[in-house]
Amino acid sequence: MDSEEKEMFKDLLWLNAVIATELIQITENTSQILRKQPPPDSCVREHGELRETALAIAEKYRPGTALGPHLRGHQ
């Protein structure tokens, strides 16, 4: 695998982490709208763990992006 291919895979891993974390947020927001109350604490906690895992993967290959601050700013 050449360096261009490696960079492409790093980009794809990072982008997939962005998509995954945004989908988690959409799920929480939709749940809150439909329930007319916040999602269950267990879901919020588990989603936080999933976000942190995706962020760790993203930062492994693309450290220092705006993804971490963005995710930690979600409510």
Structural summary, described in words:
It contains 3 helices and no strands. It has 75 residues and is an all-alpha fold. The radius of gyration is 15 Å and the shape is elongated.
Proportion of residues in extended strands: under 5%
Counted by DSSP, the helix tally is 3
Order of helices and strands: HHH
Helix content: over 70%
Overall mean pLDDT = 91
Task: State the total count of DSSP E strands.
Answer: 0
Uncertain regions: pLDDT < 50 for 5+ in a row? Answer: none
Which descriptor suits the 3D outline?
A: elongated
Rg (CA only): 15 Å
SS-based class:
mainly alpha
- Separation of termini? 40 Å
Largest sheet: none
Summary of the model, kept short:
The chain is an all-alpha fold and 75 residues long.
Question: What's the structural blueprint in terms of helices and strands?
Answer:
Elements: H1 3-35, H2 41-61, H3 67-73
Features:
single chain; 75 residues; mainly alpha
